[in-house]
Amino acid sequence: MGVPIKFESPRRSAREELLERLDQAPATHAEALLAVYDLLQGLHDRGVLDALNGVLSSGTFILDTVVETANTPENIRAIRNLLILSKVLSDIDPDVLGSLVGAVPEALQQVSSEKTSAPGMLRLLQKFNSRDSRRGMAFAASLLESLGKRLGEKKGE
User: What is the residue extent of each domain of the chain?
Assistant: First the structure.
């Protein structure tokens, strides 16, 4: 009868494999390493590394100060309002918001370029009669109506 052949797989050492990869890394990744060295030098020249080192060394102090500052009722309301405003901005069509942003400087330029200090009543009524003015007033009326409805819901009316 035959003798069984013992098979022993070579033992792998993860540490040795990592050291071997590390030895080969400079040759394999020379261009990337040079780019990283350039980046580090730029950060060092501008003082960014020193600033980060300072932040790390006084990390708990900075974190405690930020938490203490943010833990006031005013700042909590401000953070909540920012979150709500971000939701509002995400719900607005970018084209509509672009139109609004473009309209503000245009309107300011028209008002500031007029020679008289204030337009007369007849001139204002003529402006209100235009299609564009009526569209803007419809937007303002819808906005006020929605606001009134929301405020009424809050009070339970």
Answer: 18-57, 92-155
In the numeric block, which tokens belong to residue 140? Answer: 């303002």
Q: Is the full-model pTM beyond 0.70?
A: no
Tens-place pLDDT, residues 114-135: 565 677 788 888 888 889 888 8
- At residue 41's C-alpha, the angle toward residues 35 and 47, to 5°, is 140
22/15 Cα distance (integer angstroms):
10
- 32-46 pLDDT, tens digit per residue, is 999 999 999 999 999
- Whole-number Å distance between alpha carbons of 39 and 51: 16
- 5 sits in which H/E element: none
Q: Which residue has the tokens 């920012």?
A: 82
Report the alpha-carbon angle 135-141-142, nearest 5.
90
Q: How far is CA 154 from the centre of its chain?
A: 30
> Alpha-carbon distance 44 to 49, whole Å?
5
CB 26 within 8 A of CB 33: yes
100's tokens: 């609004």
3-state class (DSSP) for residue 101: helix
Distance, in Å, from the CA atom of 22 to the CA atom of 17, rounded to the nearest integer, reads 9
